[in-house]
Amino acid sequence: MDKLLFTAMSGASRIMMAQQVHANNLANVNTTGFRADIEQAESIAVKGEGYKSRTLVAARAGGTDFSSGALQNTDNPFDIAIRGEGFFAVQAGENDEAYTRSGNFHLDADGGLMLGNRPVMGEGGPLVIPQYQQLDVGTDGTISIVPQGGGLVQEVGRLKLVKPDLDNVRKGEDGLFRVAGAGAQADMDETVSVASGYLESSNVNAIDSLINNMSLSRNFEFQVKMMKTAEDLATAGNRIIRGS
Question: Which residue ranges does the record assign to the Flagellar hook protein FlgE/F/G-like D1 domain (predicted)?
């Protein structure tokens, strides 16, 4: 009975972790550029006497679904989406560069290009855009402006676009991606293409995530019933022992 209880408990614990992953995906179904998390588990054979088919389940570090989301037109030049593979680079802290698919940028009071409260990185550091009359972002991430008051078109910077090996990319608790290794940074990649005036939607499939959550809930109920069965068996066994 103890072995049955531990088996059911390991299953229930794994299901709770899986539900957290799917719940987080559902919560970010409308988050620009969000990449769905993937939950993973591993079966571990129970050592000792008994059937060799007995296994426990253990959660393992999950992965990320890097498939692209749909592009939505906004006509805002600071809304930028990546076509195909690649990431934008942002400054996530001192000497910390992180990567994201979210491109809903804006300018701060000093002309700095920002993603939320994080500076957006260019070829030589955070991008700062002078006051302008007209702005254009090329497919290679080059930012050009017509200065305020008119004049010739000027290039004022270029987005740092990267395409690291996805096997070496890890997603942090802040939702940003980083290259594995202390202080590791990705190099600029000339093949990454962007579209100005568009935002990339989340790649979460809300229907699939909802169905998976419902299935996990039923599985969790089954594991709880197994634990109750183990308790009932233990109680019956104790009564037989006391009676003898």
Answer: 81-144
Residue 3 has pLDDT above 70, yes or no: no
Q: How far apart are CA 80 and CA 193, in angstroms?
A: 10
Say if residues 195 and 141 touch (Cβ distance below 8 Å): no
Count other C-beta atoms under 10 Å from residue 128's C-beta. 15
| 3-state SS, residue 239 | helix
Please tell me the predicted confidence (pLDDT) of residue 1.
Answer: 47
Beta bridge partners of 106: 114
End-to-end CA distance of the chain: 20
| Rounded Cα gap, residues 220 and 160, in angstroms | 45
Average pLDDT over residues 182-210: 92
In 4-129 the beta strands, taken as DSSP E runs, fall at 37-45, 55-64, 71-73, 80-83, 87-93, 96-100, 106-107, 113-115, 118-119
CA-wise closest residue to 107 among 124, 120, 125: 120
pLDDT at 52 over 80: no
* Residue 85 near residue 196 (C-beta atoms within 8 A): no
Q: Could you give the CA distance from residue 110 to residue 48 in angstroms, rounded to a whole number? A: 67
Give the global pTM: 0.80
| Residue range 124-157, pLDDT digits in tens | 899 999 999 999 999 999 999 999 888 899 999 9
